[in-house]
């Protein structure tokens, strides 16, 4: 089935929506540094640990870990855990500095959100 062409009155709406998506993608973090505990959590997530595994390792409740992860996402200005891990690498919070994450890491981080 062929894609239908947008009507002339739809084009400005579609262009505006595309600009908003692009702007959201290019948003810089709030500039608020992560706390030491948040950096530790982000590193554990990047290593592929689940919420339950992080909770056991740090002696916390899973709800507490989820609270930390939510705070990390908010401070980094992202909407998902994999995006937080990618931002952590990009900002030099993880690894040896700004570097793209390993493709397997993205899969592990995606599994974390399940």
Write a structural description.
The chain has 114 residues and is mainly α. 61% of the residues lie in helices and 0% in strands. It has six helices and no strands. Helix 2 (36-46) crosses helix 4 and helix 2 crosses helix 5. The longest helix is centred in the first third of the chain and has 15 residues, at 11-25. It is globular and about 55 Å long. The protein starts with 10 loop residues before the first helix and ends with a helix. Mean pLDDT is 75; it is low at 23-29 and 97-101.
Salient structural properties:
globular; 114 residues
Roughly what percent helix? 55-70%
Shape: globular
Secondary structural class: mainly alpha
Report Rg.
18 Å
User: How many helices?
Assistant: 6
Question: Helix and strand layout, with pairings?
Answer:
Layout: H1 11-25, H2 36-46, H3 51-58, H4 62-76, H5 81-90, H6 103-112
Helix pairs in contact: 2-4, 2-5, 3-4, 4-5, 5-6
Quick overview:
This protein has 114 residues and is mainly α. It has helices at residues 11-25, 36-46, 51-58, 62-76, 81-90, 103-112.
């Amino acid at each position: 089935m062929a894609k239908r062409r947008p009507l002339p009155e739809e084009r400005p709406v579609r262009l505006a929506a595309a600009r908003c998506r692009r702007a959201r993608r290019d948003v810089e973090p709030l500039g608020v540094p992560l706390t030491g505990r948040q950096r530790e959590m982000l590193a554990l997530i990047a290593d592929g640990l689940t919420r339950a595994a992080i909770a056991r390792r740090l002696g916390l409740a899973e709800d507490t870990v989820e609270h930390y992860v939510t705070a990390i996402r908010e401070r980094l200005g992202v909407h998902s855990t994999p995006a937080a891990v990618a931002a952590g690498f990009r900002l030099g919070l993880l690894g040896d500095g700004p570097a793209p994450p390993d493709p397997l890491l993205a899969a592990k981080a995606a599994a974390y959100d399940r």
